[in-house]
Amino acid sequence: MTDRLKGKVAIITGGVAGIGLGIANCYVREGAKVVLTANHNVDGGHAAVAKFGEDVSLFVQQDVAQEADWQKVIDATVAKFGRVDILVNNAGIGGVNGAIEDLSLADWQKVIDVNLTANFLGEKAAIHAMKDTADAKGSIINVSSVAGLVGLPFAPAYSASKGGTRLLTHATALNLAQRKIDIRVNSVHPGWIDTAIVPEAARKQIIAGIPVGHMGEPEDIGEVCVYLGNDESKFANGAEFTVDGGQRA
Predict the structure, then answer these.
(1) Enclosing domain of residue 49
(2) Rounded CA gap, 99 and 236, in Å?
(3) Sites in the chain below the pLDDT cut of 50
(4) For residue 3, is it within any domain?
(5) PANTHER family from the xrefs (predicted)?
(6) Is 158 one of the catalytic residues?
(7) Which residues of 151-180 are buried (b: 16+ CB within 10 A; e: fewer)?
(8) Whole-angstrom distance between the N-terminal and C-terminal Cα of the chain?
(9) Which residue out of 59, 70, 81, 158 is catalytically annotated?
(10) Is residue 4, in this structure, part of any structural domain at all?
């Protein structure tokens, strides 16, 4: 531990598995207190708190697309830890893949709600909380995707949601900076990360397309988020951090 996040309180959505848990691992290691949320993986939430300890972690069940649930998370965070310094908007879904003309409006809307609208709601809630509890200072990290940089042909809703997250990040960062509010907003764009959602049948083909020859680990995203969460990154604002083993180089 190097205490790079000592004294910081972070909310990590989708923080109980995959990339979110990798971020949480790095944050707790660096001295942060973490509030982890998930909608369906309640068992994973309780397991994460048991792993990290109740003194430094809290699980709150949350539907990120519901504004009332955001207030629930903020209230629980402030009640337990007294402040909000960092928000990592990590929760997301892949949705239905295929030809765009076969995609239903309901399937489209679900992906947009969880992957994009939820990030707006999170930013809004976190900014108010940071103003109220942290002297209007903090860091918001939006986990987008390489699909927010280059569209995936059979994932139109996912690509649109991640591209929207990229520009939401830019717009929010500029809006806050121009008003002299010291809350920074940046995006992280993972490539293929070795999690349970990687299709086993396609693993060799995926790895063959990655210049460094292997997939990333969840903690590879976590380390970037550590940098963005602490004051080392004080001049990074409205920026994009691509972590994909060179695929988009």
Answers:
(1) 9-243
(2) 37
(3) none
(4) no
(5) 3-OXOACYL-[ACYL-CARRIER-PROTEIN] REDUCTASE, SHORT-CHAIN DEHYDROGENASES/REDUCTASES FAMILY MEMBER
(6) yes
(7) eeeebbbbbbbbbbbbebbbebbeebeeee
(8) 32
(9) 158
(10) no
137-195 tens-digit pLDDT: 999 999 999 999 999 999 999 999 999 999 999 999 999 999 999 999 999 999 999 99
Contacts for 82 with CB less than 8 Å, ≥ 6 apart: 9, 133
CATH (domain of 129): 3.40.50.720
Length of the chain: 249
CA 141 remoteness from chain centre: 6
Alpha-carbon distance values, 134 to 68, 95, 125, 138 (Å): 22, 36, 13, 7
Radius of gyration in angstroms for the set of CA atoms belonging to the chain, rounded to a whole number = 17
Overall number of domains in the chain: 1
| Three-class DSSP labels, 41-74 | CHHHHHHHHHHHCCCCEEEEECCCCCHHHHHHHH
Closest CA to 161 of 123, 110, 216: 110
Whether the Cβ atoms of residue 27 and residue 5 lie closer than 8 Å to each other: yes
Closest-CA residue to 155 (of 224, 230, 93): 93
pLDDT the model gives residue 1: 62
Q: Phi/psi of residue 33, each to 5°?
A: -95, 135
- Would you say residue 249 lies in a domain? no
Residue 199 tokens, joined:
């299709």
**What residue type is assigned to position 5 of the chain?**
L
Q: Is 248 inside any structural domain? A: no
